[in-house]
Amino acid sequence: MGWRFPYKSGRIAPKCVCPSLRPGRGPRRHRAVTGFTLMEVVVALAVLAIVLVSVFRMQTGNLGVVERLQFNTQAAMLAKAKMAELDATGLDDDIELEGDFGDAAPGYNWRISVSPRDDELLGQTAQRLYRVEIRIGLNQDESVFHLHTQRLVSP
Q1: Is residue 23 assigned to a domain?
Q2: 3-class DSSP assignment, residue 45
Q3: In principle, which of 14, 15, 98, 126 could form an S-S bond with 111, CB 3.0–4.6 Å?
Q4: Which tens digit of pLDDT belongs to each residue from 36-94?
Q5: Against a cut of 0.85, is the pTM above it?
Q6: Is residue 141, in this structure, part of any structural domain at all?
Q7: What is the CATH number of the domain that holds 129?
Q8: 10 Å Cβ neighbour count for 149?
Q9: Which H/E stretch holds residue 75?
């Protein structure tokens, strides 16, 4: 007994010897080898699960980064606006102010601290130089943005 496979042209292939019919072996049933084994399916699913978990973790990490960047951008703009207000009103010695932005930026609060800069190396210029710190917080300081700068007041 042998197996015969049709060629594309429709002719029948010559007989080939089946390995189970070699001398010393009894006839065995032949099964068609199609599909995947259970082990192959389990391994494929495990690889797929590892890849999907990695992708989901990366995506959630990206969402956190985007949220932080949005806060930093908004807080920097709010700090710039407060600095402009401070420049318009003028600087005085030892100012401590705080408040919130109201409906313009709900949830955001601010604190401004101005102090004179005492530096012997600067001489007379140090009397007109102020250290300014603006702190912007969101949702009871869940996130905080600090702006540190110096301003030179004209004589």
Answers
A1: no
A2: helix
A3: 98
A4: 899 999 999 999 999 999 999 888 888 888 989 999 999 999 999 999 998 888 877 77
A5: no
A6: yes
A7: 3.30.1300
A8: 11
A9: helix 38-89
